[in-house]
Amino acid sequence: MAEQRGFWYCLGSGFVLGLAMIVPGVSGGILAMALGLYEPMVAAIAKPWENWRGHLKFFLPLGLGAGVCVLLFSRILEFFFAHYPRPTLYFFIGLVLAGLPAVYRAANAQGFGFSHGLSFAAAVLLPLAVSWLPAAEGSAWARLGLWGHVLKGGIVGAGLVIPGLSVSMLLLALGVYRELLGAVAQLDLGILLPAAVGFVPGLLLAAKGMNWLLGKGFGQVYYAILGLMLGSLAAAFPGFPRWGLEWLLCLVLFGAGALIASFFHRNN
């Protein structure tokens, strides 16, 4: 199925999927579903050596399009985070909140039980707990050194195949989003190369894991995704605006983000 997609379609789709890597609130899994690429992507990733030539024709333009998107928009986002960090985050929070009802409906498709609540609670606490780790002395990420960059790449890869989860918002909650964004904008190979090493294993493990988990407990998985989204929002929350004009700007951008995401989910 994957190889039936044309080169230009995959190139354009890759550009769209690149948004999920850098725009908090945008889910790579949801975008892939809307483009009709999620199932062939997960199937190809889960069995990479079956029909590898067809998979290569499929993933090469996807990767090229995503790379162009990331390089193009990383500098723009770096500018907004440098000059308007709080209003920018409010825009992304609006994007995430508008996507919660769709994930909630998927989570409740097979009912609710104790295990669903347990999955939800654990997932809410996970990004909050990790975001508190660097509080002692220095950054826990810095102490991991090179392996920390590999782990960040693995998180990006894994987040791209989990429907409903915004990997960028998760990275914001973990305190590493702006570092990775700056590395892409400045082409810092000292960060990007080890992150690329972690990206592929993260993608493969997550694809295989999602296949297995969804077969074992669909509702529990989606409640965990819902919890990760809410926990990431809480960990990344920048605080309330400080003065009148900032309040107005934050509210307008929050509303714009929610409106854009609502339109996208309603039409897909």
Structure description:
Helix 3 (38-46) packs across helix 11 and helix 11 runs antiparallel to helix 12. The protein is 79% helix and 0% strand. The chain has helices at residues 7-22, 28-34, 38-46, 52-83, 85-107, 114-132, 140-144, 146-159, 167-174, 177-185, 189-216, 218-236, 244-267. With 268 residues, the protein is an all-alpha fold. The longest helix has 32 residues, at 52-83. The chain is globular, with a radius of gyration of 18 Å.
Summed up:
The chain is an all-alpha fold.
Which features characterize this protein?
268 residues; mainly alpha; 13 helices; 79% helix; globular
Task: List strands and helices in order, with pairings.
Blueprint: H1 7-22, H2 28-34, H3 38-46, H4 52-83, H5 85-107, H6 114-132, H7 140-144, H8 146-159, H9 167-174, H10 177-185, H11 189-216, H12 218-236, H13 244-267
Q: Detail the poorly predicted runs.
A: 134-138
Please give the alpha-carbon distance between the first and last residues. 21 Å
Along the chain, the helix and strand elements come as HHHHHHHHHHHHH
Strand content: under 5%
